[in-house]
Amino acid sequence: MTFSFHKMHGLGNDFIVLDARKNPIQMNPALAQALSNRHTGIGCDQLIIIGNGKNQADVSMEIWNADGSEVEACGNATRCVPVFLGRDVIISTAAGLLDARLSDEGACVDMGRPRLSWDEIPLAYAMDTLSMPVAWEDLKEPTAVNMGNPHVVFVVDDVDAVDFGRLGNIIEHDQLFPERINVNIVMVTGKNHLKMRTWERGAGLTRACGTGACATFVAAKRRRLISGKTQIDLPGGRLVLDENSEGHIIMRGPATYVFKGEADWASFS
Ligand SMILES: N[C@H](CCC[C@H](N)C(=O)O)C(=O)O
């Protein structure tokens, strides 16, 4: 039985997009992992399933990491949905309703309000989340932010000098994080200008992480490293972050449609 898929990416954070609005798809961890595998499958950082929305949502969005874990939010994929559909949309996700609109650079999305208390991240026990009293070698005193998914943000002098492939993996799986964690490192490169990298929960080092950029913006603002609209440079390119009058995080940036493909479900069982 064959199916169509669409390859898209947000600054190189790449996705397999499945349109399940006419034919519902029952995804599971093993199948998500098989489809995401870059050697034996189609290959992606995350698998995105677009379904029919209900109530005020135009569509629903399911997000599966390459390791097969289903997660609550994906900023770069949220920008891809209006580009895929060719119109502005309200998207229902496990993290709530998201407003995603086409824009000159690709898309502009309202990623909602960050959650900042230790039990909303979540952490395994109570702790100040602005400057957490913890360290992993030279990465210390991070800020924790939940953007629908959990993040920690470390401020460093040089993001390119960090052994991030090793440390990111260690931190992701630390028992302080009962749901694991996305790990971000950031440096200030100018007034309201940051440079960052992300080790993603369930996907490892990626070219960009949209919710990571949102969490990093929130952390930098809380630490008074920036004030107002901010440009953030990620390995795959640039995002523009701001906060609206309701405290929602607004993210603008590219979203790219690459190609449509056909495959057979039997190849991934
Ligand atoms: N790895 C993330 C999900 C994908 C987020 C990222 N690709 C983005 O653009 O926000 C997690 O496990 O929470």
TrEMBL record:
Keyword Isomerase: yes
Reactions catalysed, as given in the entry: (2S,6S)-2,6-diaminopimelate = meso-2,6-diaminopimelate
Residues that coordinate or bind substrate: N13, Q46, N65, G75, N76, N149, N182, E200, R201, G210, T211
Location in or out of the cell: Cytoplasm
Pfam families registered for this protein in UniProt: DAP_epimerase (PF01678)
Primary localization: cytoplasm
GO CC annotation: cytosol
Feature type site, description Could be important to modulate the pK values of the two catalytic cysteine residues: H151, E200
PROSITE patterns reported for this sequence: DAP_EPIMERASE (PS01326)
UniProt EC number: 5.1.1.7
Keyword entries, A-Z: Amino-acid biosynthesis, Cytoplasm, Isomerase, Lysine biosynthesis
GO molecular function, one term: diaminopimelate epimerase activity
Signal peptide: none
Biological process terms in GO annotation: lysine biosynthetic process via diaminopimelate
Pathway(s) served: Amino-acid biosynthesis; L-lysine biosynthesis via DAP pathway; DL-2,6-diaminopimelate from LL-2,6-diaminopimelate: step 1/1
Residues annotated as the enzyme's active site: C74, C74 (proton donor), C209 (proton acceptor)
Subunit and interaction comment: Homodimer.
PANTHER family the record matches: DIAMINOPIMELATE EPIMERASE (PTHR31689:SF0), DIAMINOPIMELATE EPIMERASE, CHLOROPLASTIC (PTHR31689)
Family: Belongs to the diaminopimelate epimerase family.
Function: Catalyzes the stereoinversion of LL-2,6-diaminopimelate (L,L-DAP) to meso-diaminopimelate (meso-DAP), a precursor of L-lysine and an essential component of the bacterial peptidoglycan.
Identification of the protein by name: Diaminopimelate epimerase
Source lineage: Bacteria, Pseudomonadati, Pseudomonadota, Alphaproteobacteria, Sphingomonadales
Underlying gene: dapF
